[in-house]
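hey so i finally got around to running both of the ones u sent me last week. sorry it took forever, my laptop kept dying halfway thru and i had to restart like 3 times lol. anyway pasting them below in the order u listed, first the sequence line then the C-alpha cell line for each. didnt double check formatting much so if smth looks off just lmk and ill redo it

first one:
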Amino acid sequence: MTLNEAPCLIFDLDGTLYEDTDHFDYYAAQLKEKLPADKKAEFEADYHSILNGAHPLTIGKAYDIEHDAILTLDPFTNKVTEAHTWEGEMWNQTQIEKAYPEALSYDFERMIAIGDGWWLPFSAAVHHGLHMKDTYHCYVKTKEYMVSEEFQLTQTPGLKDWLTKWKEEKHLILMTNSEAYDVENLLRELELEGLFHEVITSAQKPSMTDNHFDRVLKELPYKPEEIISIGDNFINEVAPALQKGMHAIFIQPRPVTIEHERLHVVKSLQELL
C-alpha cells in the first residue's frame, strides 16, 4: 500500500518530520560539561567512536544501565540475542539467558531503548557516571536551544504541501515521545502546526506503542492493513505496526537487512515524498 492509497498515516516526529542531527552534538556537549574533569575525555572519545560505528552501542539496540551492557534484540519479540560489555566483550549464552530470560521492557531508568540519536550521548554519559537528573537538565537545555535563534531546523521540501493535501483525504496522526510544549515549538519551527488531526505527545514508545495502536484501531474506522506507521525507529514504530497487521515505512540511511511484505525502507523522508 502506498502513502496515497492509505486512509490513515501515523508519523513519528524526531528523525522523521525533520532529520537534523546537530542538536545531538549540542546535547553531548552539555552532558560532557556535567561530567567530572577526569571523565570528559573518555566520554568524548566514546561518543565519537559511537558516531563512527566503531563502538557496540548503535541505534536499534538497548542499554542496560544496571549491568552496563549493550543488548542486541530480535525487534519483533524484544528478546535479547546478543549482549556486550561497554568495551565490546561478548557475553556467553548462559549469561544472557540468566540476565534476560524474558522479553525486555523499557523503563528508561534502568533499561534504555536506543531508538534515536538522543540516547547515544545519554548512554555514554550515564556509563561514565552522570546522574539521571543532570541528563534531563541537559535535555531541556538542548530543547530550548532547538527553538532559539541560534538553531534552524531544516524543513523537508514538499512535506507541508503533502500534509496539507493529505489532511483533506486522510486521518493524520503524530505520535512522539517528545513533550507537548516541545512538540508545539518544533511544529511551529517546521511550519507544520495544525496539519494533524491528532497529536499524541509523551507517547512512551516503545513500551506504550501497542496501547496507542490498539486505541487507534478501536476508535477509528480503519482496518490494520489500511494504516501506515512512518518512523526512523524500528523498535518504536515499525515492528509494533507490522505485528498489528499495519504497513510500515522505515526511514534509515544505513543498509537494512530486515525484509517484510508490509515494510518499505527509505533513506530519508525526502526520498519517500
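and the second one:
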Amino acid sequence: MRNDDVRALYDRTMREHARPDGPGVRVERDGPLVRQVGGPDDWNGVVWSSPDLDAEGADAAIGAQIAHCTAHGLPEFEWKLYSHDRPADLGDRLRAAGFVPEPPETLLVAPVAPLTGPVALPEGVTLRPVTDAAGAELMAQAHERAFGTDGSRLLLQVAKRLEEAPEDFVALVALADGEPVSSARMELHPGTGFAGLWGGGTIAEWRGRGLYRALVAHRARIAAERGYRFLQVDATDMSAPILVRLGFTALGTTTPYVYRPGR
C-alpha cells in the first residue's frame, strides 16, 4: 500500500472509529470530534477531528472540550493533533485557548511480517511476559529507570488492564540478573489491522545492546500470530531512528496538546 493509503486507513480505523484503550473508558463522538472519556487516572482526550473542520468550527470544538474537561473534574485533557489535521492553524488555536504542546512524536508504521525474525538477547537477559501485579511492578520500575519519570500511573493502568481486560494487551519486561532493565507493551485493536507499540524504554547502561530491537521483534511475532498487518508507533526522537532502520516509515507527526484546568 502507498503511504497515503496506509495513513488514510490509520485515520479511519484507529482514530475516527477508535476503540477504548482499556477498561472503564469509552469513546464517543462529539460533533466533529472523537474523544476518549474516562476517570482521572485514565487517558482523556481527542483522537480524531473531521478533515472538514474549519476555523469557526475549530474554536467551538476547542471550547466544548475545555467545558467537558472542567465539568468532569479532570486533571488534564489532551488533544492529539496530527500534522495533516485541519485547519492548518489548529495548533495555534489550541495554544491560544490554553492548551500546552508537548514534544512532537513521529507517526511510524511498518508491515508486521518483516519484523518477526529472531533477535538474540544479550547474555544474562531474559524477557518476562507481564501477566500479574508483580510483573506490572517490575515494568513500572524499568519505566522509571529508563525515562526518569514517575511510574505510578503506568503501574495502575497496567494492573487494571491485566485484571479486567487482558485479551488484547501484551506487556514485557527484560530482566538482567533479576533486575528490570527494559520494558514495553503492545495494544491490539481487533478489526483494524493495526497493533500499537508503546512504552519501549531501556535504562542507560543497557542501551545499544539490542534490547529495544528484541522487544519490537517479540511483539511483532505476537501480532503476526494474531493476524495483524501493521505495527504503529508514536516515536520519540530517541526511538525513531532505530525504528526507521528496522523498516518503519514516517507518515507524519503527532503533537500532544494538553489542557490543565487552573494553570
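quick thing i noticed on the 2nd:
DSSP finds seven helices and twelve strands in the chain.
anyway thats it, ttyl
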